[in-house]
């Protein structure tokens, strides 16, 4: 299970119920296409913003049943999914707003501003999947948000060697300052491909934050029945395994980007199998 790009969420895998695969594929291609418009190729910010504005209009037309145009292969299947499963338009609009924000490449003053971004770039995916499974309990939604935010944060700290040289600074400035680091200093270390002791201490703190979010959301695996629950176990354990790998290399993700491989599969399967429900509070009926 990869912690990378929009492969962070299940994309119609063999564990997914067949009747949901078209909808999950449609959500994936909607998000992936928007991500590419925001981040791929040689277009400048103005052109990217204009393309995403057109894409937003196409989404709103698709919600009304009009899927013609440049992105018909994306919005035709998405409209079918919206109609068949009553997908919430707001979740799709929230995703798009995060891609629009990426075009402007902002700095994040503190964790709250980064969490606001994650609430739109990652959390809607989990909520859309829960919607497809008919799960809407407040506790489940909260846990889903925690897992999705954790995956997004893990992706950030995993990809520092890629993002910093491109001028993408997801590290909250308040955290960096606490370790005596500025965006310019972070970029210099990334260019050198070697993390200083303060940089490693910062990364350790940020990965600890991501781990706490993932563990807070992990009870969700016991709320989702069948194969989907097992797939989520692998998603959770894949994210935690990346954090283990970051720690094992001294919290230096500039020298080497940690990734999962075939050799990790037995460990992930065992950890997924042995995920136990939280103990019942005293006096509560079983």
Automatic annotation (TrEMBL):
It is an enzyme of class 2 (transferase). Gene3D superfamilies: Farnesyl Diphosphate Synthase. Its EC number is 2.5.1.21. The keyword Transferase applies. It comes from the Bacteria. It holds the Pfam family SQS_PSY. One of its GO terms (biological process) is terpenoid biosynthetic process. Keywords: Transferase. One of its GO terms (molecular function) is geranylgeranyl diphosphate synthase activity. InterPro entries: HSQ_synthase_HpnC, Isoprenoid_synthase_dom_sf, Squ/phyt_synthse, Trans_IPPS_bact-type, Trans_IPPS_HH. This is Squalene synthase HpnC.
């Amino acid at each position: 299970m990869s912690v990378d790009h929009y492969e962070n969420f299940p994309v119609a895998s063999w564990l997914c119920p067949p009747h949901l695969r078209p909808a999950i594929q449609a959500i994936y291609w909607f998000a992936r296409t928007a991500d590419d418009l925001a981040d791929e190729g040689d277009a400048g910010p103005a052109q990217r913003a204009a393309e995403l504005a057109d894409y937003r209009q196409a989404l709103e037309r698709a919600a009304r049943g009009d899927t013609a145009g440049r992105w018909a292969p994306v919005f035709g299947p998405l409209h079918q999914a919206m109609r068949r499963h009553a997908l919430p338009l707001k979740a799709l609009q929230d995703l798009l707003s995060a891609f629009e924000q990426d075009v402007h490449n902002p700095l994040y003053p503190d964790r709250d501003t980064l969490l606001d971004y994650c609430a739109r770039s990652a959390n809607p995916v989990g909520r859309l999947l829960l919607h497809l499974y008919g799960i809407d309990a407040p506790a489940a939604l909260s846990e889903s948000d925690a897992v999705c935010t954790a995956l997004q944060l893990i992706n950030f700290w995993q990809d520092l060697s890629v993002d910093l040289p491109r001028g993408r600074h997801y590290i909250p400035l308040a955290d960096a300052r606490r370790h005596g680091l500025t965006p310019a200093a972070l970029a210099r270390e990334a260019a050198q491909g070697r993390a200083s002791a303060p940089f490693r201490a910062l990364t350790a703190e940020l990965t600890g934050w991501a781990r706490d979010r993932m563990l807070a959301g992990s009870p969700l695996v016991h709320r989702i029945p069948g194969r989907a629950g097992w797939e989520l176990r692998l998603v959770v354990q894949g994210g935690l395994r990346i954090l283990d790998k970051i720690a094992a290399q001294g919290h230096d993700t500039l020298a080497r980007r940690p990734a999962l491989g075939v050799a990790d599969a037995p460990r992930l399967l065992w950890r997924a199998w042995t995920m136990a429900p939280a103990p019942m509070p005293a006096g509560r009926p079983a």
